[in-house]
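Hi all, posting the design record for the shared folder.

TITLE: backbone redesign
STEP: 1 of 1
STRUCTURE INPUT:
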């Protein structure tokens, strides 16, 4: 699947490959100590946000994942 921005597709594929490898080789085996894909995700996220602005895609009411935000108490 391509990304929302043509220029982001390669970044998306690289991140997807990194995440899938980490998920299968580490996370599923109980190793949740690190995520080597974090920087790659940030680059991809930045590219997507730029593409959304350039294409003037309405995103009112959409919440974005932010790793530094604390989750609200339930």
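Okay, here is what came back for every position:
SEQUENCE:
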């Amino acid at each position: 699947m391509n990304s929302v921005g043509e220029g982001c597709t390669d970044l998306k594929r690289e991140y997807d490959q990194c995440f899938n490898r980490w998920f299968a080789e580490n996370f599923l085996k109980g190793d949740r100590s690190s995520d080597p894909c974090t920087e790659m995700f940030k680059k991809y996220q930045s590219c997507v946000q730029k593409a959304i602005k350039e294409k003037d895609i309405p995103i009112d009411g959409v919440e974005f994942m932010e790793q530094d935000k604390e989750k609200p108490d339930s």
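COMMENT: The helical segments are 9-25, 38-54.
Let me know if anyone wants the other runs.
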